[in-house]
Amino acid sequence: MRKNIAFTILFAAFFSLLSLTTLAQPTVIQTKSDTNKIVSGAQSYAMIVGISTYKHIRPLSYADSDAGLFKEYLKSKGAGNVPDDHILYLINEDATAANFWVKGMAWLRQKNLKNGDRLYIYLAGHGDAINQDEYFFLTYDCNPAGDKNNYIVTGSI
Hints:
Number of helices: 3
Number of strands: 7
Order of helices and strands: EEEHEHEEEH
Distance between the termini: 22 Å
Strand content: 15-25%
């Protein structure tokens, strides 16, 4: 049985997910108190999506503002002063599936991330699960109408 899961997916359990490999060996610095390796010159990037208003789904109250707060946090000194051009920020009407997949992936390719760079992917908005293996983040333009094929064809990540 399909259960709707309407929640703010703070999928941002910080997908520090890109440790891309390159052919060259990076310069590595290690501090005494930290056993993690830090790559010299590593950059941080973020893809931030926050949706409170939807075209076909009931609205949420704070997803867009939560995304804005995460963006401001990344730009702060405590988070490493991530520059604006290292942040893709899509909220509400701009947070369509096409903008994420086409514009977002073009943006990411253009950034040419290197070994040791960090990519944060922050998603705040509605989500749904068809079963225990199929989860979807619903974009602004999603029209689920109770059919998992609509998630694949219309707005989802």
